[in-house]
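Hi there. Long-time user, first ticket. I'm pasting a complex I've been working with (about 808 residues overall). I'd like to know whether the download I got is complete or cut off, because the file seemed smaller than I expected. Thanks.
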Amino acid sequence: MIFKKFNIENKKTRDLIPQVATILALLSVIIYFATNAQINMGNRGISFGFGFLNQEASFDITFSMIEYDGSHSYGRAFLVGLLNTILVSVIGIFFATIAGVIVGVSRLSDNYLISKVAEWYVEIFRNIPLILQIFFWYFAALRALPLPENGINFNDISFLTIKGWYVPKFIWTNFNIFLLSIIAAFIAIYFINSYATKQREQFGKQLPTAIISLSTLILVPLITFLFFGVSLTFEYPVLKQLSPTVYTYEGGVSIIPELIALALALSMYTATFIAENVRAGILGVGKGQKEAAASIGLTKNQILKLVVMPQALRIIIPPTTNQYLNLTKNSSLAAAIAYPDIVLVFAGTALMQTGRAIEIISITMLTYLTLSISISIFMNWYNKKMAIKEK
Amino acid sequence: MNIISKPSKENIKSYLPIGITLVFLSLLDVFVNAFFNYNLLGFFPSQISYFSPLVFGFIGLYLIRIEFSGIRSLDILNKNINSNNFNAFLTLLTLFILIKSIPPLLNWFILDANFVGNTKEDCTGDGACWVFIKVWFNRFMYGLYPDAEQWRINTAFLILFSIVGVSFFVSAKLKKYFILFLIFIYPFLGIELISGGGFGLKYVETAAWGGLSLTFIISAFAILFCFPIGVFLALGRRSSLPAIRYISIGFIELWRGVPLITVLFMSAVMFPMFLPDGTFIDKLIRVLIAITLFEAAYMAEVVRGGLQALPKGQYEAAKSLGMGYWRMNVLIILPQALKLVIPGIANTLLALVKDTPLIFVVGLMELAGMIGLAKTNPKWLGMAMEGYVFAGLVFWVICYAMSRYSQNLEKKLSTER
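Hi, the file is complete. Here it is re-exported in full:
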């Protein structure tokens, strides 16, 4: 009876064999690696565990957004690196999006010169390895900047020097109220827009939503300045002589050249890919759509807002999110120019000091993995929501 | 009244010469300013003379914007760069920036640059010091590979390129054997030739390999291995067997979710921990495995796109002919699916080539790494600009050629569907 069940002609059995074989092979590889790792770690006198995260790190980080010095723990150093990664990614994504949209739209311009310049921008920056671009900006271009004493002066407000870019520091009072007011403004805009949509769909009335939204966004935070005691002053960087030949700036915020080079290279490189997405998205909206919209009497702006953009965005957004993710992962190249991101701080310095290769590399990879997977889950949800429901 | 009327065919005789003169004047002003550093309109106050080319050019372009002028070249010009005020403004701005940026670039690259000499002291001009590239050229190409043995790398690549070159001109039947030779025999031959150790060739350790040739070696091997692995992973991800499907998904998403640099770190510091004590795998091989697995995951997703795009009828037709899983995939599905995703495959291979400089994190130095080494040489400090511009140009030529080739291939293979 049992023998009959395991007949090779049986489809179920036939399907089972390769699966069991694969799982067994995978398991044996994992067990082999794990036993080796255990033996190796035993030889070096270290045991697997994450307790080291609480130990004192005793190394300094050149650039940190939260309070940090050598007396803080490895866990704190990890957080500093993670925040720096997020910082450079956000800056890069911001500028890459702006540049990408401009270049992408320019490529479709009916002006021959503009479209050619945009095309060559894409061809040049897409085909040079990102790491070379980072090296170029950091080791060649930014090194050509002047010393602090003759830094490039922007109206005495900010200074660009070889040691970084010194910008004014914002000093807020009651910043929380200001932040809340901005959030309130956005909520208000959301309700205004949904009200306007309802009005349009039910009564065919057009409300000037763009102007109303913009004025809400400006007016609400402005009111907090007048009535709720929010105020903003600036602390400007000032040149100071340390020794007869060494100068530096005091006050303000210093943006380190590593951050500038990295953000510049990341955004210029990623912008080429975003530009191609934008171009494909706009081209992907059929001509018939525009003509149909025009023939039912929509104005040029309405066609763009109600017909072209919703369809183009559906094509543009998924690959562009992918590019954002790529940018975030590419920011790990920071290690090449010593920008203290998570790879340099954690997988570099901390690993050298503790020798805990397995734990640290796993944490680093898991951090990126969490980021990627959460974004792709979000994207799947978004795609499902935005998919055209065909009848 | 006539003088301010809209430019049209009636007043073409008076408007066209004035317009052309104004545009010419504005371009000439910028040109003279950029090339000879002389301000033609300097007699104006500085605020005016700064913007005068723009104003002149703008008025000039407005005057020659004549619809249906009857002059063919003028119509083409108007349509392409001068269709409305905004376009005219953009055109002028682009032209000015282009003209302005030519002299400094020309000076740096050629006119003020130094080409002769053997040391840094021979570079006296303000421009680029191409002597640096000339002196280090050998290192940039071959890394620390011994000079006397470099003919071996040359021979290996010569064989590769000549086989690839010849295979374009032979018949399809012979081509098959050429490809089989390239995939199954050539890699061993090439590695034997470059690393040595047998046939009376001196052994050269992989730490000495480097420069552009290392970029090619790594790219070639990674391409060779990542493609079949990628295809298998793609098939696995679409398999009906749950265990194989989930393992494939997990494998693909694991590699796609992390940056290559952490994978290389892993191969350098974490992987040796997983091996029995005392075993040592060469650094280059570890890096090759890491890059191959990493790119294979991306390749798998590209191939999966092709598999999904195939109509279901193809699968059903193959099955109804009584084909098994492997015969169906090899003979019917994959040839069509792969053809669909040639651009994607080419992009992945392009990304692979662009990723090779990252091997600096494990201490291997290809072109970018060698430049990093050369620019920190005490005798050649301050040569970063020349080095990276050179490396950028080299990589750009390679990648641009690849992307162009893939575009051509796509056009050639595209079939009506």
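A couple of notes from our side: The first helix of chain B runs from residue 12 to 36. Chain B touches chain A through 56 residues (CB under 8 Å).
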